[in-house]
Design goal:
Elements lengths: L15 H9 L36 E6 L7 H14 L2 E6 L3 H10 L6 E4 L2 H10 L9 H10 L2 H6 L1 E2 L2 E2 L1 E8 L2 E4 L1 H6 L8 H14 L4 E3 L11 H14 L2 H8 L8 H14 L32 E5 L21 E4 L8 E12 L4 H10 L2 H10 L19 H10 L4 E5 L7 H17 L4 H11 L4
Parallel strand pairs: 1-2, 1-3, 8-9, 11-12
Antiparallel strand pairs: 3-11, 4-5, 6-11, 7-9, 7-10
Helix pairs in contact: 2-13, 5-12, 9-11, 9-15, 15-16
InterPro entries: Bact_solute-bd_prot1
Family: Belongs to the bacterial solute-binding protein 1 family.
Protein name: Carbohydrate ABC transporter substrate-binding protein
């Protein structure tokens, strides 16, 4: 295996234009892509007219609790500065690697944070079910902002039993295919715009380049092994059934082993379980189960693989010095649907929910839904962060991939759906689903057998 593996967790280079923009937001000689110790001077340039509706909050404090810790928390802290400057409030941020375990403890002890960042809707539902009086519904100002600035699907993911509890704060796009622009150009290949075109391209590459493979993949991720394969099924579900049917499947209103789900998994298998198409740089189909998620796309850099399906956040896994751009070493294209005019998009994100309804807390939650916050956060953040707020200026995003993801997230043609496994009961979404997809690859189990097993594992109540 000759592809480059060293420093795979370093932030990849982003092209000249992105580096210039990044440098402009950094202090002195800071490394491009890394947050600076002092952050950005957002507050000094804040236009307080946009903050007048929050009122005078002098002397008030809002506590915020999340899983992001130092030094990665600096962009969070910096993004709050204009709100603090213009309203007089103080935002007290606390990050913890034990966030998910400690948040329920804080609630039970009667000392929850005012605002908590929830990494997935499944956790929100658990908190609402367990602590129905502690989680506060979203107030009017934040509610109105979400209606105005976000795709309607986002509101649904912050809703539990008909009540709206959590506003979107971060996003990612998962329906991406990473590739080498030079390999594609040298082969005379065009970016596919439909699923049929993608399959035709796959076959053409396999025929014309027998020493390489069209695809490379890896689903090994320690205790979470299998999760990348769940994304494949979810993406194919969005391309073979209606959005409403996807929702029914996620909510178990459609059986996990419904014939339509079998069809979608077989479609994923047309690539992932075909030795002619995989696993470039690693071997046969079964190597997908033992190839680390973070390493899976690296054979693209040495021409052993042409395409790798993975989310926008995979940009952090390319080796240091890799240029991520349309004319760079690697870039990504949208995983197309059956029709070029309809854009199903699988994604994820995080949400902010409140445990207090004081005016200053409601004001801060509204700020988190505003264009002002999304743009301040983008200015303060390195590559890899974006928001689905339609008024985010893409010029504030540091990476071409983030800009491409935002373009998809804000496209009126996009049909956005959240990562299904994050919405399912934990026993399935981070249990039998992961294991089943691993067995599908490693043990060559049939799609129906795997889906039957997952269906049988769904909690009865």
């Amino acid at each position: 295996m000759m592809f480059r593996k060293k420093n795979r967790f370093a932030v990849a280079s982003l092209g000249v234009a992105s580096l210039v923009a990044l440098a402009a937001c950094s202090n002195g000689g800071a490394t491009p892509g890394e947050p600076t110790a002092g952050g950005t001077d957002s507050a000094s340039s804040a236009d307080c007219a946009a903050y007048e509706s929050y009122g005078d909050l002098s002397g008030k404090t809002v506590t915020v609790y999340a899983s992001i810790v130092s030094p990665e928390d600096q962009p969070q802290i910096d993004s709050y500065k204009p709100f603090e400057k213009c309203t007089g409030a103080t935002i007290a941020y606390e990050g913890s690697r034990e966030f998910e375990a400690q948040l329920p403890v804080k609630i039970e002890a009667g000392s929850p944070p005012d605002i908590a960042y929830i990494p997935q809707p499944g956790l929100l539902k658990t908190l609402v079910d367990r602590f129905p009086d502690a989680v506060k519904p979203v107030a009017a100002a934040a509610d109105a902002n979400v209606d105005k600035y976000y795709n309607e699907a986002w509101k649904g993911y912050g809703t539990v039993d008909g009540k709206y509890y959590a506003v979107p704060v971060g996003a990612n796009a998962k329906s991406f295919v990473w590739y080498s622009p030079s390999l594609m150009s040298d082969g005379g290949y065009e970016i596919p715009t439909t699923l049929d075109e993608l399959m035709a391209l796959t076959e053409k590459i396999a025929t014309e380049h027998p020493d390489a493979k069209p695809w490379c993949a890896g689903i090994e991720s320690g205790a979470a092994t299998g999760w990348p394969a769940t994304d494949w099924l979810e993406d194919m579900m969005l391309r073979t059934v209606t959005p409403e049917e996807y929702d029914k499947w996620v909510n178990h209103e459609m059986p996990f082993n419904d014939p339509k789900v079998v069809e979608a998994l077989d479609m994923a298998g047309a690539i992932l379980k075909n030795d002619k198409y995989v696993n470039g740089g690693y071997g046969n189909v079964k190597t997908i189960a033992t190839t680390a998620f973070g390493d899976a796309g690296l054979p693209i850099l040495d021409g052993q693989c042409y395409m790798h399906r993975q989310a926008s956040f995979y940009q952090a896994n390319w080796p240091e010095g890799t240029k991520i751009a349309e004319d760079g070493d690697v870039f990504a294209f949208y995983l197309p649907g059956k029709d070029a005019d309809v854009k199903p998009l699988l994604g994820g994100g995080e949400f902010a929910t409140a445990f207090a309804d004081r005016p200053e807390v409601q004001a801060f939650q509204a700020y988190l839904t505003s264009p002002e916050w999304s743009n301040e956060k983008a200015k303060a953040s390195p590559a890899g962060w974006l928001s689905a707020n339609k008024e985010l200026d893409p010029a504030n995003l540091k990476s071409p991939i983030d800009q491409l993801a935002f373009k998809l997230l804000s496209d009126e043609k996009t049909v956005f759906r959240f990562d299904g496994s994050d919405l399912m009961p934990g026993a399935v979404g981070s249990g039998s689903f992961w294991k089943g997809m691993t067995d599908w690859i490693a043990l060559d189990k049939s799609s129906k057998d795997v889906l039957d097993t997952i269906e049988a594992s769904w909690p009865k109540s």
